[in-house]
Write a structure and sequence with these properties.
With 419 residues, the chain is of the alpha/beta class. The chain has helices at residues 2-5, 9-21, 23-46, 65-78, 92-103, 122-125, 153-162, 184-197, 249-259, 275-305, 330-342, 399-418, and strands at residues 82-86, 109-112, 140-143, 167-171, 202-206, 225-229, 243-247, 309-311, 323-326, 364-367, 380-384, 390-394. The protein has twelve helices and twelve strands.
Length: 419
Amino acid sequence: MYKEFGVCKEAIELMKKAEADCQEELLRIENRCDTFSLKVLNAFQKYQISEAHFQETTGYGYNDLGRDTIEKIFAAVLGSEDAIVRGQFISGTHALTVTLFALLRPEDTLLSICGKPYDTLDEVIGLKENASSLKSFGIHYEQIDLIEDDFNEEKIREQLQEKFYKVVEIQRSKGYSTRKSLSIPKLERIIKIIKEVSKETIVMVDNCYCEFVEEMTPIEVGADIMVGSLIKNLGGGIAPNGAYVAGKKELIELVGERLTCPGEGREVGPSLGMNKLLLQGLFFAPSVVASSLKTAVLTSRMLELLGYEVEPKYQEERVDIVQNIIFKDEEKLIRYCQGIQSGSPIDANALPIPSPMPGYTDKVIMAAGTFTQGSSIELSCDGPLRYPYIAYQQGGLTYAYGKLGVLKAVNNIMEQKNG
């Protein structure tokens, strides 16, 4: 069967060796999955989910029992006062954009304390000119870079003392950068400093890729509001689109009025048959995230055994579901992504090639043979065509399928090496 799948004996033996090395890490992930599953099940039972919550609304979406209850469940799971969970959010970037426009007003200043945010926010902020950016509305932007993968506490404290910043934004996952992702203990420490110096500053966290990885959420360590995509972790590979914003009730109300319109806010927004999918997705999310993490751990060890630089290493504590492989070679990055595509259930016969992408500066190669377009809780891999040619791999609906996809990708670069 492996021969029919198109992988060599050497790749299979490498996988077996790597998996044996990872047993302790894989067990730890399973144990944490049990904790998250209990949290989700408790929330479902607290709000007495029944078939009535699956019913859809259309048009304006008034009095949508399922939609409103889903938002209570997300708030309970994430440890927040309130949450808005909607299919009207197109992506994580859209939810971040709506949140920023909801919180900021002309002449306010946004401060990022982990360097430049993800590429798709360049035009949202105005780092790249756009007539609809925050900058075009008179909203200012400043940033403080990280120092050795941690917050520059001295500089942050100094700037907060000199000037009032309406919103401090923290992107936890690394994006297309070489830094490490930011852990909950690091967040807790810096949020405490921010609130000591500037109590009224809103701490906003981009939590994409990070849910159900660490035991606590940013809200539970002091963040005011956080954002995540439902075609990532909390959608469990079932949600067809959407995102969530969770946090303080008054801030969530502002987000609702920016998503729809002032005066109507969260009272409108039809579920269009999504309620059951969102509930199922959240229900499966602990297990799916665990599978993604296990796939990432195995990938890290396999590529390390092949001599490549990886981040994080297989035995390191993880913050998100993203695994970096630093190829330092354009062709190897391309071949690895093409291998992921060929090991996918959908469009396995497609050959991804580097192409310009909206919102990105460099050409990007993207492999995603996914049931949901753009889903990164399903096994996918992408990277910009710039040195040091890093593959950013994420996802894996099940560990078994994740292993097979990675096996195919590894086989693809081994063939190049042997060839």
